[in-house]
Design a protein that fits this description.
This protein has 173 residues and is mainly beta. The chain has a domain at 57-147: Trypsin-like serine proteases (Thrombin, subunit H, Beta Barrel), CATH 2.40.10.10. 7% of the residues lie in helices and 33% in strands. The chain is built from two helices and eleven strands. The chain has helices spanning 76-79, 145-152; strands at residues 12-14, 25-33, 38-43, 57-58, 67-72, 84-92, 102-105, 117-119, 125-132, 140-144, 169-170. The strands form three sheets. The chain has a six-stranded antiparallel β-barrel. Strands 1-2-3 form a three-stranded antiparallel sheet, covered by helices on one side. The chain has a two-stranded parallel ribbon with strand order 4-11. Strand 8 (117-119) and strand 9 (125-132) form a beta hairpin. The radius of gyration is 16 Å and the shape is globular. The two termini are 28 Å apart.
């Protein structure tokens, strides 16, 4: 089901920093979780373009029926470079074939939403969009944010999480 976005990549290029899709940045994988299709990358030669991160990453589970919002750059070639927001609900606390690492959500998604954040009404990241069910309408899956937090705990000790990122982490249950 999961594709392994950075698996076997020989190079990683990041575009869209601060909405600029012309400038490209090289990036390297710092730590990855192939089972959950997650990776934390480091953008090289970043020229101070990022601002403080205005959200928290939540570890606690969300409930079925909770309103959610998905951010991403779907179908950029035809829909443009502006970030898009869609909304929906958490349909299930489990994903494809009962996978407990995923939520099933009803927010409409397209190619380009994968890897984007799923946030709650307070703007807290509660998941990362990962896949869409090809045989069903409005059935998308998002990796629960607790698996991203687990990956953050595996970062090398000398990793610089600048921009007050560590102040935004919520390891509560």
């Amino acid at each position: 089901m999961r594709l392994g976005v950075v698996k076997n990549a020989t190079s990683i290029t990041v575009k869209g920093v601060s909405g600029d899709f012309i400038k490209e940045y090289e990036a390297t994988v710092i730590v990855s979780d192939q089972k959950n299709d997650l990776a934390i990358i480091k953008i090289e030669n970043l020229d101070g373009s990022l601002q403080n991160i205005p959200y928290a990453i939540k570890n606690e589970l969300s409930d079925v029926g909770e309103n959610i919002f998905v951010l991403g750059y779907p179908l950029r070639a035809t829909m443009g470079d502006e970030i898009k927001l869609t909304n929906g609900l958490i349909s299930s606390r489990t994903g494809y074939q009962g996978d407990v690492t995923l939520y099933q959500i009803s927010a409409p998604t397209q190619p380009g939403n994968s890897g984007g954040p799923m946030v709650d009404q307070s703007g807290n990241v509660i998941g990362i969009v990962s896949a869409k069910h090809a045989g069903a309408e409005n059935a998308t899956y998002a990796i629960k944010s607790r698996y991203l937090l687990n990956l953050l705990e595996l970062l090398p000790e000398d990793t610089d999480l600048s921009n007050s990122f560590t102040d935004s982490l919520d390891f509560s249950e």
